[in-house]
Amino acid sequence: MRLPEEPDNPSQINIVPMIDVIFALLTFFILSTLYLTRSTGLPVNLPKAVTAQTQSQSQIVVTLNQRGQLSLNRQPAQLGDLQTRIRTLMGNRSGALVVINADERVSHGQVIAVMDRLRLIPGVKLAIAAQRPTP
Question: How many independent structural domains does the chain possess?
Answer without folding.
Answer: 1
